[in-house]
Amino acid sequence: MSVGGGKHWMALEGGADGSPGAGSYTSRFAAIGASLPQRRLSTDEVMASTTHRTDIELEALTGVRERRVVGAGEDSYTLALGAARDALAHADCAAADLDMLIVSSISRHVGGLRVQLEPPVNVSLKAALGAERAIGLDISNACAGMMTGVFILNDLIRQGRIRRGMVVSGEYISELGRNAAQEIRNVMDDQLASLTLGDAGAAAILERAPEGAAGIEVAGFTTLSEHSRLCVAFPATVGPGVTMHTDAREIHRVATEDAVPMLREVLDQAGLTFDEIDYLIPHQTSARAITKAMAGFSEGFGSTPKHVVITVDELGNTASTTHFVALRKYLEEGRFVPLDRVLLLSLASGLEVGIVIFKVDALVGHYGHDH
Amino acid sequence: MGTIIEATATADGGSLGALGLADAAARLCLQRAQRTAEEVDLLINAGVYNDKGISEPAVASLIQEDIGANPEQQPGTGQGTFSFDVRNGGCGLLSGIQLVDGLLASGTVKLGMVVASDIDPDPGVSEGFGFPAVGGAVLLSADDSRAGFTAFRCATFPRFAGLFQSSVAWQEDTRAGRRDHGRNVLTVQIDESYADRALECAESTVRAAAAAGVLDLGEVDVLVATASVPGFAAALAQRLGLSAARVASPSGALAGAHTAAVAVALESVRLDAGRTTLFVCVGAGITVVAALYRG
Question: Which position among A320, B215, B228, B257 has the lowest Cβ density within 10 Å, counted as fewest Cβ atoms?
């Protein structure tokens, strides 16, 4: 039940009145980690690599100037491992303290372009980290995978079922761009979005917050599956790896429209107004799409968050990792103060709508900034 | 308060495809429980081998749309459905049940369904794929008066990771004149020693749980055990000192069922009040997930 006692469409955890359910504890982000490949690939280079001559102004269309791409020996697994280690290096706990380890990557490249279906990736990751005690779990929820992991961990920590858990993704997805570059002919091509993808790993550790401490205020998820077939990826026919086919225009349109009532539900549940959000971190698809969506949200709410985070210009769309790569970057750069309230907004193939609102609080101290 | 099974169902046969099998099992499961799709507010798919090798979206979202579980948002009118996939190999269905159990206990959701199905995505091209085409569904809700699922245990044995491997990788076409051609091929490799190691890992996980006092083998009325290999449940029962008469497992053409195996086994099990069922699932990794169910 929401604060007003009305029905809510999203599955919700937390809120101003403490409902729903048995939230005996508060859960919070203990640390955020990331792993970015060194190699940079500019949009000019991507467009110069297409098999067919096109007149697509990709940078102007999307705002993506460059992205990181894996080098020799790097893949989804190594990016996930690097991000997990980075998160642990900024946390007050060790891998052995983790009660749960959730791997949430879309891409499962282990050993170059080999897509590993079994064993689940968590098995080797647990062993490499030394997270012997952790319940291991691989999940898959498109670009909302990490946020889904946060939703699961938040629920279990709030109940006291677990004390601490990690969700981690490693996305080696620039290869989808290489496959797309072989086939794309014009701006209407359904593989255009693949050219905006970049590689990254990200990890988040969640833990039970000390009594009275701030943390995740509310988390909500729903799947608007009437749009489930707007973005689909499967093994490529033109070469190794995967191709992704997206009705980009339509998915942006429905995501922007459908997010407004969902945002309203979550804000109502938390007893917050839109302008009480200090930083909104949306899923990073294209700068233009984000700007357009924000304009729609502002119109819907009559107010705006204080800052909207955009990283897609320099990192591209890094799939399930986008929110956490951005968070890690802002923590590193000392942009947050402890009282800042952040809203993470996932809009992903499915159509998944996931929202998490939290106070940054003690996180800033783990990155060398005490403000 | 416990998480109880309201109904289970299966669907088999290759003509439907993995999505069709999952859809059919989900629909039959809802029908058996006299529930509507709109009531399902959490839908988890645990299948590994789907029709095209889809990596996104979550196959659960496709199933959600197909069965009509709140595909369109109608804020203010009730709760929608949240869908995602679990990819935990042969343990996925039980891992999915564990996740539903958590979200039911907190009250975040009221009715959860875990669905799983597998099919050879590329017959004639895939190598080593031997799982039967079958889908299963399990419908779960919270019940104040029954214990339901309890004592979940999870263990991984990474030293045996090489015994069960499956992947999709590019194979060049080596025929003359076809050098620039090739294709992505699914390869499943299960070592002949996998079945024995799976038994050992399952037994040690169950015995560790018994030693820790979280389960008593003496109270087990039924053993539901799966490892995607025929004969696993009977062999595990023998190792655990349980009567062969208490074993439930997929049989006949479905004996090697993969992610849907738990649902297939439950077709022959009565989960009545007073009866205790021990679930033990083993998959690649080696991964073991076990749980007790008190009806």
Answer: B215
CB atoms within 10 A of CB B273: 8
- Partners of B68 on chain A (C-beta within 8 Å) are none
Which of A158, A233, A352 comes nearest B106 by C-beta?
A158
Question: Which structural domains are found in chain B, ordered by start?
Answer: 2-145 (3.40.47.10), 152-157+191-294 (3.40.47.10)
Q: Does B57 touch chain A (CB under 8 A)?
A: yes
- Indicate if the pLDDT at residue B91 is higher than 80: yes
Per the CB < 8 Å rule, is B73 touching A115? Answer: no
Q: In this complex, do A8 and B95 lie within 8 Å of one another by their Cβ atoms?
A: no
Contacts of residue B228, Cβ cutoff 8 Å, sequence gap at least 6: B90, B131, B190, B256, B257, B258, B261, B283
Rounded distance between C-alpha atoms, residue A138 and residue A167, angstroms: 10
d(CA A202, CA B103): 25
Cβ-Cβ contacts under 8 Å, A234 against chain B? 52-55
Q: Using a CB–CB cutoff of 8 Å, tell me whether B208 touches chain A.
A: no
Cβ pair B87:A120 closer than 8 A: yes
pLDDT tens digit string along B228-258? 999 999 999 999 999 998 999 888 999 999 9
Residue B33 near residue B143 (C-beta atoms within 8 A): no
**pLDDT recorded at residue B172:** 86
- Which of A26, A36, A25, A29 is closest to A202 using CA atoms? A36
Whether A130 and chain B come into contact, CB under 8 Å, resolves to: no
Does A223 contact chain B (CB < 8 Å)?
Answer: yes
* Torsions phi, psi for B6 (to 5 deg): -80, -40
Confidence of residue B177 (pLDDT cuts 50, 70, 90): low
Helices (H), chain B: 17-32, 59-67, 92-105, 194-211, 232-240, 261-266
Position B187 scores a pLDDT of 97
Average pLDDT over residues B73-98: 93
- Reported ipTM: the value is 0.97
Interface contact flag, A138 B109, Cβ < 8 Å: no
Please report the residues numbered 233 through 272 in chain A whose beta carbons come closer than 8 angstroms to any beta carbon of chain B.
Answer: 233-237, 239-242, 244, 258, 261-262, 264-265
The ranges assigned to domains in chain A are: 11-367
Predicted confidence at residue B179, as pLDDT, reads 60
Give the C-alpha separation, B92 to A175, whole Å: 28
Does A283 touch chain B if contact means CB atoms closer than 8 Å? no
Question: A229 and B62: CB-CB below 8 Å?
Answer: yes
Residue B96, SS3 per DSSP: helix
Judged by a CB distance cut-off of 8 A, whether residue A225 touches chain B is yes
**Architecture per CATH, A11-367:** 3-Layer(aba) Sandwich (3.40)
Burial of B267 (0-12, 13-18, 19+ CB in 10 A): middle
Rg of chain B, C-alpha, whole Å: 19
